[in-house]
Every structure is written in structure tokens, then in C-alpha cells.
Amino acid sequence: MSKISGQSVRVAAALALAWLAGPGCQPPVADTIKIGEYASLTGKEATFGISSHQGTLLAIEEINAAGGVLGKKLELITEDTQSKAGEPATVVNKLIARDRVVAVLGEVASSRSLEAAPICQQNRIPMVSPSSTNPKVTEVGDYIFRVCFIDPFQGTVMADFASQTLKARRVAVFTDVKSDYSKGLARFFKERFVANGGQIVAELDYNGGDKDFKAQLTAIKGANPDGVFIPGYYTDVALICVQAKQLGLNVPLFGGDGWESEKLVEIGKDAVEGHYFSTHYHPDVASPKSREFVERFRRRWGRTPDALAACGYDSALVLADAIRRAGSTEGAKIRDALAATRDFQGVTGVISINENRDAKKSAVILQIRDGRFRYLQTVTP
Ligand code: PHE
Questions:
Q1: Nearest CA to ligand 1 atom 7
Q2: What residues form DSSP beta bridges with 351?
Q3: 114, 223, 233, 312: which has the fewest Cβ within 10 Å?
Q4: Ligand 1 pocket test: which of 81, 105, 138, 181 has the largest number of ligand atoms within 8 Å of its C-beta?
Q5: pLDDT in single tens digits along all 381 residues of the chain
Q6: CB under 6 Å to ligand 1: residues?
Q7: Atom 12, ligand 1: which residue's CA is nearest?
Q8: Does domain 9-149+286-361 sit in CATH 3.60.15.10?
């Protein structure tokens, strides 16, 4: 994945010549700061990992082009979790034991972050999740951080949206019981929606990866809701929307950041039209910093960045800033510097790490219209 530039070839050649030149000269040593990344580059949530990785790698390349950190280049070593349980532990153990990374970036999905976080914690290797929102992730320990908001907030954002904007009174909730993210977000949504005076008229479950949701959707339809909250990931959500439409369940469907993928529209087509989800970032919300990022990202990858890319980008920037302030690549020192992150200007907003090692940031609500994700509103905490 790494490109060898003309410059680094020349430097390597010069070093080799110096080494051959005589006794006393040392062979060239790899002189980089190694950062691990684990992401779902393939499998059911492949677009999460690919997009997050593109943002992360762009940040690393830009930092290196500007001279690196502590006089060294950052080297990003990326491992694929294949969107599968079991892989995060394997690949993060490898990153730490074999590659000797000084810190780890990842994962997107909360269940996968929860699997690898204890390994980082035990090895005293700081981990920064770009976009895992379940509260339990950073509760694993004092080496575990995130640069995004958490689901007690995201749940209230969508509950208030349902009550106030959609004027929904009777809502059904459809939860992926295999996902910590889905279970947590469902609970936080329900608590707030009921506190708003709303009623949960049906609660149904599925297992991520299921293909047939018709039995549950028929039960949901029978409860006569005026909206359905679906805190799932895009591959499942797209099929749920298609089958809901086939069954004539014609009410607003809405969810959280897990909906965000171009695949949602590719699979869901007109069945996802008009529905809503919350997320971390939208390229149309223009801060100057975000606008420049969108341009650089387009130039590098030939596509417009989404929330996953923007969060990935910010995770690498925040980590690099912490290593710089730590003045060291020692785990405990990077951890202390990460914990001291205040008012960091990211592309997703201003990032301050709080006492729970989370960031407090705004959410955006998007609507799917004409096959695109349109910005509707920003909700500040
Ligand atoms: N927040 C989701 C989780 O914790 C992951 C996600 C983030 C998905 C951003 C899409 C966009 O599992």
C-alpha cells in the first residue's frame, strides 16, 4: 500500500553507500513511528472500514508531508477485521506484538472496538476509536479514547427528532441483538422518546446478517406505529427498508450513524427514499477547515468524504498531536497527552477529551432524497 517516492529511494541509497563506505557506519534502521489501524476493509461493513481508512491515511500522509512527528515519519500499519467477531483481537495482538505499534486507531463498529480495547489496555497501548459510539468502549480503561460523541447523546437526538420534527407519538423499535451499538442506541432512544411523552408500541429483534425481516416487520405494521427506529448497520437496514416497503409499511424509518454508506442507497434504492439518520459530519456543513479537507480528500481518493472518513481523519490528527505534546512514544505519556486534548480543531468539529475519554460534539441529521444524503439539521449537545 505504501508508495516509495523518488526521494526515499535516494535517501536509502545514500545510507547504504555510507554503510558500505567503511567500518563504524551503522546499517540503516527503520526510523518511523508505527501506528496500528484495525478496520473492516472487507465483509459486511466493508464501506465503514474503507472510508475510515481513507480518512486516516490521508491525515498520516499530510502529517508526514509537513515533516512528521518528533522528527520522524508516521508509518500506518493497517489490518483488516473482515467485519467479523474474533478478528479484532487477532489483528490487534499482531499489531502490538509483531509490529510494535505505539498506538492503535480503530475500530468503527462498537462491538469490534470492545473486543480489542482490553488488549490495548493490558498492553498499555493507547487506542483511539474514530467513531465507535457505545459508552462501554472507553469504559474498558484509561488507555481507551474516542474522538466522537456517544450514543446516550445520539439516542436523544433521534428521539427528539421523532417527537418534535416528525411529530411521532407511537414508535416501533427494531434492534440488532448481535450488536452492542444497536442495543445501546435502542435503549437510549426509548428512554428519551418515552420521557418526551411518546409510546413504544412494538419492540422487535433481528440478528445482523439476517436476510428475511418480514415476520418482524409484519408484527411492527400490526402495531400501527407512526415511525420505526432502526439502530442498525447499512446492509441490514437497506434490506429492512426494502421489505418494509413491500409490506406496505409506509411510515418514516429512521436510525443512527450505522446507516451511512453509499451501499444503503445501492441496495435500498427507492425503498430508502425519504428516510432519516443521524451522523457525525456532512460535507455541506462548511467550516473553512472542513471545506479544505473535502477538497484534499477528493483529490486523493476521487470521492466525497462521509462521516466515517472525517472521523478517521480526525482520529489520526488527534493522536499525532498527542504524540507531539507527549514528546515521546511511550504508551503512558501518549495516554496522558490524549487525556489532556482540549479544543482541538478537527474537521468534524472541536474536540476536547472529557473525563470519560470521550468527545462532546454535535450531531447532524440527514434525509435520503433522490439517492443522496441531504443535510437537514445540526444538534448541539
Ligand atoms: N457508531 C457506530 C458504532 O459504534 C459505528 C459507525 C460510526 C457507523 C460512523 C457509521 C458511521 O458501532
A1: 131
A2: 344
A3: 223
A4: 181
A5: 343 343 444 444 444 444 444 444 555 555 999 999 999 999 999 999 999 999 999 999 999 999 999 999 999 999 999 999 999 999 999 999 999 999 999 999 999 999 999 999 999 999 999 999 999 999 999 999 999 999 999 999 999 999 999 999 999 999 999 999 999 999 999 999 999 999 999 999 999 999 999 999 999 999 999 999 999 999 999 999 999 999 999 999 999 999 999 999 999 999 999 999 999 999 998 788 999 999 999 999 999 999 999 999 999 999 999 999 999 999 999 999 999 999 999 999 999 999 999 999 999 999 999 999 999 999 999
A6: 48, 108-110, 131-134, 181, 257-258, 260, 279, 307-308
A7: 109
A8: no
Closest CA to 95 of 71, 78, 81, 70: 78
As beta bridge partners, residue 227 has 171
Q: Is the pTM of this model over 0.90?
A: yes
Residue 200 phi, psi (nearest 5) = -90, 110
Backbone angles phi and psi of 371, in degrees to 5:
75, 10
- Residue that has been written with the C-alpha cell 429512521 in this structure: 254
CATH classification for the domain delimited by 152-279, as one of 2.40.10.10, 3.40.30.120, 3.55.50.30, 3.40.50.2300: 3.40.50.2300
Q: For ligand 1, atom 10, which residue shows the shortest CA distance?
A: 258
